[in-house]
């Protein structure tokens, strides 16, 4: 295995888990997965002069969020030139020496790698990431020698933020006569994140995850990925591989939107599988509310009790510290509502969340 001095010591960490782990999950066997084409939505239709076309586009977004928890969008308003520039800067950043990334305080000291809380090999993620609060994206002091990254990343974050609020507004409006504050009012830069991901090639074992199975603890996530592929999601109780589309961004529902919608929208388990020969890069934007925002199901009777985003984060972090696993939404079920929950929600009890998903 060829190791670059830019890569974190993933092999050493994984080897330590193999030698010292006292907890063993069932081995993960790499099998050929069915490839799926996510629902594809042309956002140009939202600007159509024909009201029926606009309504059909909004309905497609809501249907995909209910049936898949995932969809992809084209003509989303983020230029291919901006995406290419962002990818170029991202690659330069991750090719910096590991010590530079880990010790120089880049991007608000947000660098993470591997899975520090993993207690067994199947909880380990073969990846590294910068998980950057939006409040720090334009801060010149965060970039060190990577000054050209700042302008591109600021523009990219702003475009992703605008798109996330557009989609969240459509999904919220679909829920009906909603009396509480809109998502746009409760989400701000203090809790939203942009995460730059790098999955180094991993030829040592087909059993290693690039990112372990998980759900996202936000309202929604927008993902810009390269053409290497590796994203898989749970559909109809089986894993399916998402076929990359160079013109599309991928959108997925998070735990908070599932709770807010009373399970109308689904927060679906997903993962990244490692690639034996090729590095993979992606960028994710996470739309989160302020920490004290109240999450309450809009339909009665509610499946979940009321909780704040701060309470949810703290509970997830406590579970991960104690057990290595995220429990998530089932912790917030109202008594007697267990039978109403979806298969997706029940699956959350098995999910481990590594440090690079610190927003959870």
Automatic annotation (TrEMBL):
InterPro entries: DIOX_N, IPNS-like_FE2OG_OXY, IPNS-like_sf, Iron_ascorbate_oxido_reductase, Oxoglu/Fe-dep_dioxygenase_dom. Coiled coil: none annotated. This is Gibberellin 2-beta-dioxygenase 6 isoform X1. Signal peptide: none annotated. PANTHER family: 2-OXOGLUTARATE (2OG) AND FE(II)-DEPENDENT OXYGENASE SUPERFAMILY PROTEIN-RELATED. Residues 188-289 form the Fe2OG dioxygenase domain. It comes from Gossypium hirsutum. GO terms for biological process: gibberellin metabolic process. The keyword Oxidoreductase applies. Keywords: Iron, Metal-binding, Oxidoreductase. The keyword Transmembrane does not apply. The gene is LOC107918980. GO terms for molecular function: 2-oxoglutarate-dependent dioxygenase activity; gibberellin 2-beta-dioxygenase activity; metal ion binding. Belongs to the iron/ascorbate-dependent oxidoreductase family.
């Amino acid at each position: 295995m060829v190791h670059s001095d830019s890569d974190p010591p993933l092999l050493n960490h994984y080897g330590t888990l193999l030698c010292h782990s006292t907890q063993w999950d069932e081995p993960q066997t790499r099998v050929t997965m069915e490839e799926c084409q996510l629902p594809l939505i042309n956002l140009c239709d939202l600007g159509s002069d024909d009201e029926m076309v606009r309504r059909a586009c909004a309905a497609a977004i809501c249907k995909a969020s209910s049936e898949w928890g995932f969809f992809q969008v084209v003509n989303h308003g983020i230029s291919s030139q901006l995406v290419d520039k962002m990818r170029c800067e991202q690659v330069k950043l991750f090719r910096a020496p590991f010590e530079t990334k880990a010790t120089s305080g880049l991007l608000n000291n947000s660098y993470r790698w591997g899975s520090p809380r993993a207690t067994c090999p199947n909880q380990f993620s073969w990846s590294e990431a910068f998980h950057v609060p939006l409040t720090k994206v334009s801060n010149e002091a965060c970039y060190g020698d990577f000054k050209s990254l700042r302008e591109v990343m600021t523009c990219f974050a702003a475009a992703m933020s605008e798109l996330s609020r557009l989609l969240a507004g459509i999904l919220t409006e679909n829920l009906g006569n909603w009396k509480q504050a809109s998502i746009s009012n409760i989400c701000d830069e203090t809790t939203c994140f942009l995460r730059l991901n790098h999955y180094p090639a991993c030829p040592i074992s087909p059993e290693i995850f690039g990112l372990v199975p998980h759900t996202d603890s936000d309202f929604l996530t927008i993902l810009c990925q390269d053409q290497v592929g590796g994203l898989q999601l749970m559909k109809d109780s089986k894993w399916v591989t998402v076929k990359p589309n160079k013109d599309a961004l991928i959108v997925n529902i998070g735990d908070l939107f599932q709770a807010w919608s009373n399970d109308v929208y689904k927060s679906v388990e997903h993962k990244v599988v490692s690639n034996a020969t090729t590095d993979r890069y992606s960028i994710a934007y996470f739309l989160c509310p302020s920490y004290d925002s109240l999450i309450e199901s809009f339909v009665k009777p509610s499946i979940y009790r009321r909780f704040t985003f701060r309470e949810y984060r703290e509970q997830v972090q406590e579970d991960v510290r104690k057990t290595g696993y995220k429990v998530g939404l089932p912790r917030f079920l109202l008594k007697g509502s267990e039978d109403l929950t979806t298969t997706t929600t029940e699956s959350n009890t098995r999910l481990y969340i590594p440090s690079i998903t610190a927003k959870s």
